[in-house]
UniProtKB/TrEMBL annotation:
Pfam families membership: AA_permease_2, SpoU_methylase
Transmembrane segments: 287-307, 328-352, 364-381, 388-413, 444-466, 487-507, 527-552, 573-592, 604-622, 634-655, 661-680
Gene Ontology MF: a single term: RNA binding
Entries under InterPro entries matching the protein: AA/rel_permease1, Alpha/beta_knot_MTases, SpoU_MeTrfase, tRNA_m1G_MTases_N
Keyword tRNA processing part of the UniProt annotation: no
Lipid bilayer topology: Multi-pass membrane protein
UniProt protein name: tRNA/rRNA methyltransferase SpoU type domain-containing protein
tRNA/rRNA methyltransferase SpoU type domain residues: 20-165
Keyword terms, alphabetized: Membrane, Methyltransferase, Transferase, Transmembrane, Transmembrane helix
GO cellular component, one term: membrane
BP-aspect Gene Ontology terms: methylation; RNA processing
Taxonomy, superkingdom: Eukaryota
Presence of keyword Nucleotide-binding: no
Length: 845
């Protein structure tokens, strides 16, 4: 082998021009070390170091851990300024050309042979900012390394340097797909290896064919070879779609109508959270609410950053879907379902409590069940959440709370002894894991904070209907909701201590505001507040039905929930299966917890705090993996970390409470998660069923012939039905939009689809400008991937036109693929960002 390699090297003698490497403004020691190793591998004669820190550079040169006793085969010369470096180069090599690696309009391709015709000195820019002005000034030419991100990542610095100092070679690959010969694929690479005793470089050219059998198994497991397709978009159809998009106005909700929809959820929490917080925190309830206000202030900007970048309905689920795997997003969706479930149940039971205040003897459990039944019927009949009605309810409820605040202030001034009496009470004892513990300031704040988070539940509602909001509205909604919730939660917690003794508050925690109204004004105001509370809380039940319907539809379209949830009745065109399922599960929760608002609220807090924790995590992943996506603002890392810590503390506080609540929450979460997991792994389950059937009940023919399972599903009892189900599940295709024919990105897209989606057909689509031509290597690269993954048929599709929302809509109609089953690489400009706003999923960085 060694003699053959030496003979091959002798057959291709090369005497390349002398090369130099300039290292300046490189931050990471690892990058410096990789550059030095590349320079040694590719025959650089001198490395010129300008202004690097001496200690950092010396540490980068220490490579004993990877190459013991290795010595760099070039000179290393240090300079204080770039001007001195250039003067030295010109003195030792008068014809030298300094090449800067940068994407500029006058830059030449790294594959242009004229670039390296004479002596060259290569210089790369900083990992984050590229070449500085001083570096640009000393460069004679610029070389362009194709990159498809918004900036130069730290990997790109070393790879770009390696490509610029290495020679080019060609790899020609011919593929044969079944009986059809594919066009020859030509991919340019840089490949070199230093000779043992000199810097001579060698070039190899490989020519080979790949013969692949595309029928290694049954058609339901191996769909066959991919196809190439050229699509033409008629200008008239595109113009019609653009006109339709301009006429369509999904962003109909303004600032205050949107605030009202969200505010009814958030401010309704005040009706049942005030008493619960007082029972946990005692006289420190206001401090607990201050901590909650500070926490939600941080989450304001976290939500704005993420939702402004991905303005699609779905909240936490949508964020995780665009930053992590589908399984993690599905788990978040399970928490969101529990949150909607708990919202409706807590609101129904609390509304019953306020109604019971005026109708003594009313059974809370049956009343809550009746409320859930009435709104289920109304939703089946087609009653949707009206923004105008929501605004009226919101305005009346806000004015009612303001009236209660004013009346309580007057009462507090007249009866100051109540406040001072409450300040002298001991901290409440707490039930932790079934044991009573004496309270202190720390436990009061800790458990009070956990309970006070219940007062801002519903904060995430605005992110679940962002597609219906006017541009720029989302930021204003969160601002308004934060001010309102912080003001009322804090003010009412203080005034509660000024109006009612703590033991009265604890005994009537379900209807504390009604008690305050009765004490401060009288019976008529108590009646008014009870009616207002009943209406607002009933409105939250309606919102829960509407919200769970939208979320379940989204999950069913994404194939996370069973697709029968998309079925609509012919009478009112409503999703009756979703409504019926929600009603059954919500009613069961009411009866299992016997209408206990405190326990039901704990279940709600579990789900809400779990969503906050995962949203903070997804926001940090979003910063790391989707940094180039346009957004309105950028929340600081400190806000994400502190927000995550505070939400974890709140979750822990709820977790340490009543063990029965934890069991109930875990039961419902595992049930929903189990259903979702079954959907995500249904192909595996079907194959296991086939194996079990073959084992316990083989057909006579299969048992006699001893046929392999995968080759003979028809010979297995029930096999044809299972195969039909597998084919039906795998039938819907997936689209991935490819901007540039980058083999690495395409392979990542294929791996994502294989790991997260049920399909046997991936269509990779490239849109090229009108009058131009598609990249020559595009079809060949797709052909390579098609051969690599025989269980996935990978088609290449080229479309002439502009990549825009109208193009995506046209393709969705032409290919009969919904936009939520279309994927894209991270968009780094506003045009591509508009496409991702249509529901096209971002799957790679």
């Amino acid at each position: 082998m060694e003699s053959e390699a030496l003979a091959a090297a002798a057959a291709f003698p090369l005497t390349p021009p002398r090369q130099y490497l300039i290292i300046n403004n490189i931050q990471k020691r690892k990058n410096i070390r990789d550059m030095l190793l590349s320079a040694a591998a590719f025959g650089v004669v001198e490395v010129l170091v300008v202004g690097q820190k001496l200690l950092s550079f010396d540490q980068a040169m220490n490579i004993e851990d990877v190459l013991p006793n290795f010595q760099f085969p070039f000179r290393i010369t240090r300079f204080a300024t770039l001007g001195e470096c250039r003067a030295h180069l010109v003195a030792v090599e008068p014809t030298v050309t300094i090449l800067g690696i940068e994407i500029l309009h006058n830059a030449k391709s790294v594959n242009d042979p004229d670039v390296f015709a004479g002596p060259t000195a290569v210089m790369a820019g900083n990992e984050g900012s590229g070449l500085s002005d001083a570096q640009l000034a000393i460069c004679d030419r610029f070389v362009y390394i194709p990159q498809y991100g918004g900036g130069t990542a730290s990997l790109n610095v070393t790879v770009a340097t390696r490509l610029a100092i290495a020679p080019s070679s060609h790899l020609n690959v011919g593929l044969t797909r079944g009986r059809r010969r594919c066009p020859q694929a030509s991919v340019q690479l840089s490949s070199a290896m230093p000779a043992p005793s000199s810097s001579t470089r060698h070039r190899w050219s490989f020519n080979f064919e790949v013969e692949q059998d595309f029928q290694p198994g049954p058609s339901w497991a191996f769909p066959g070879p991919g196809r190439s397709q050229n699509l033409h978009m008629p200008a008239t159809e595109v113009a019609a779609i653009e006109t339709e998009l301009e006429k369509a106005c999904p962003h109909a909700l303004g600032e205050w109508t949107s605030t009202a929809i969200t505010g009814n959820d958030v401010l309704s929490s005040c009706l049942y959270s005030s008493g619960i917080v007082a029972s946990k925190a005692g006289k420190l309830a206001p401090v607990a609410n201050i901590l909650v206000a500070a926490t939600m202030y941080l989450f304001r900007f976290i939500y704005i950053e993420v939702v402004s970048a991905i303005p699609l309905n779905g909240g936490s689920y949508n964020t995780m879907l665009n930053t992590t795997s589908k399984r993690w997003a599905a788990f978040v969706s399970a928490l969101a379902i529990i949150a909607y479930l708990a919202t409706g149940v807590v609101s129904a039971v609390s509304a019953s409590d306020y109604l019971q205040k005026e109708v003594p003897g009313l059974d809370t459990i049956w009343s809550a069940t009746g409320i859930l039944t009435v709104f289920a019927i109304l939703n089946v009949c087609g009653l949707n959440d009206s923004a105008v009605v929501a605004l009226i309810i919101f305005a009346v409820h806000t004015l009612t709370l303001i009236g209660l605040v004013l009346a309580s202030v007057v009462y507090a001034v007249q009866h100051p002894h109540i406040f001072w009496s409450n300040m002298g009470t001991p901290f409440p004892s707490l039930d932790v894991e079934g044991h009573d513990l004496p309270g202190n300031a720390a436990t009061a704040l800790f458990f009070g904070f956990s309970s006070a988070m219940l007062g801002v539940t519903g904060f995430e509602t605005a992110a679940n209907f962002v597609e219906e909001q006017a541009p720029g509205t989302f930021r204003k909604i969160l601002r308004n909701i934060w001010y309102l919730s912080s003001f009322f939660n804090l003010t009412l917690s203080v005034l509660n201590l000024c109006v009612l003794p703590l033991h009265v508050t604890t005994a009537n925690s379900n209807v504390v505001l009604a008690m305050m109204a009765s004490t401060t004004v009288g019976r008529w105001f108590e009646l008014w507040l009870s009616i207002d509370g009943f209406i607002v809380l009933s409105g939250s039940v309606l919102t829960s039905y509407v919200g769970i319907t939208g979320l379940a539809k989204r999950l069913a379209k994404d194939r996370v929930l069973p697709e029968f949830f998309l079925v609509e009745n012919a009478w009112r065109h409503t999703s009756h299966y979703i409504i019926l399922a929600y009603f059954v599960v919500a009613t069961s929760l009411v009866w299992i917890l016997e209408g206990n608002v405190v326990m039901l609220s704990s279940v709600y807090s579990y789900a809400f705090l779990g969503l906050l924790v995962l949203f903070a995590v997804s926001a940090m992943l979003f910063k790391l993996k989707r940094s180039q996506m346009p957004r309105e603002t950028t929340a600081p890392w400190s806000a994400c970390i502190v927000g995550l810590f505070m939400s974890c503390m709140g979750f822990w506080g709820i977790l340490m409470g009543d063990p029965k609540v934890s069991v109930v929450f875990a039961t419902y979460l595992l049930t929903v998660s189990g259903l979702i997991l079954l959907m995500l792994e249904r192909l595996f389950v079907l194959r296991m069923i086939m194996v079990v059937l073959k084992t316990i009940s083989p057909s006579p023919a299969s048992d006699k012939m001893r046929l392999p399972l995968l080759q003979s599903p028809s010979e297995v009892l029930g096999g044809p039905a299972i195969v039909k189900a597998i084919k039906t599940i795998n039938e819907p295709p997936i689209v991935f939009f490819c901007k540039h024919p980058d083999l690495q990105v395409l392979n990542k897209a294929v791996l994502y689809v294989r790991r997260n989606e049920h399909t046997d057909n991936l269509r990779i689509v490239h849109v090229y400008s009108r009058g131009g031509a598609p990249p020559a290597a595009f079809h060949d690269m797709v052909a390579v991937l098609d051969c690599m993954y025989p269980k996935l048929r990978i088609d290449s599709v080229v479309v002439e036109g502009e990549f825009s929302p109208s193009t995506v809509h046209w393709l969705s109609h032409a290919l009969n693929i919904p936009t939520n089953m279309m994927f894209i690489r991270q968009p780094d400009n506003m045009d591509a960002h508009k496409v991702s706003m249509l529901g096209v999923r971002v799957i790679t960085g």
